[in-house]
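Hi support team,

I submitted a single chain yesterday and got back a structure, but I'm not sure I'm reading the token output correctly. Could someone confirm the output below corresponds to the sequence I sent? I've pasted both exactly as they appear in my results page.

Thanks,
R.
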Amino acid sequence: MRGHIALAAMLVVSVILLVYSLQVGVQIGADWFGKDANFQWHMNNYIVIDAKYAYSIFGLATLAIGGLATGLAMAAFFTFRKNKKHILILISAFFIAIIMTGLGFNTLDFMLGCFYWTNMTYPPPVHVAVLGPVDVWNFYFFFFVAPLWFSGFLMGSATSYYAFIYQPKRVAATYLAKRSLTGLLNHTRQPKEYLAESAVFSRSRNIVEQTFENTN
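Hi R., thanks for writing in. Yes, this is the structure output for that exact sequence:
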């Protein structure tokens, strides 16, 4: 029961962080969905796409997927028995986590320079509810990049824990419980005893009875 609650809480928090960080990302990157949406953004010398796709796919999505892959790869640190299939999945997730996290952070860092370094000048602080004015770079990193990546990390960790730890333990516990119950039933079940009277025993008993009657 506690495992279900912990997994559900992790998934709920991850979804909340994901929705919040995406809203912030759309807000501070509004130019890439508006006037600069069709700007030809060079991912490298060979890949050139519209800025709106570069920001959405190679920025927002890849950073979240990087956190997700990192959470999946965490199973390598807290599981002890892994077969070849699990090892292959964890190795793939580890390299995907590095590539996606680096690509997403690098893309957002370049494309949102217009937010935290406007016209080569340092913009004024961002006003945050409860906290008040927050440095623009701190807002960009701690209120956008970190929550976006951490939302994927929580989701991946919950998935990894369920697949590699919680579910196998639950299956093993169910198997042991059924085995113990079967053994208990077999132990308490009493075998039926049958009493058969042989012909020799019957004849000898009749002789004894006749002798006793003649004597009386």
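A quick pointer for reading it: The radius of gyration is 36 Å. Let us know if anything else looks off.

Best,
Support desk
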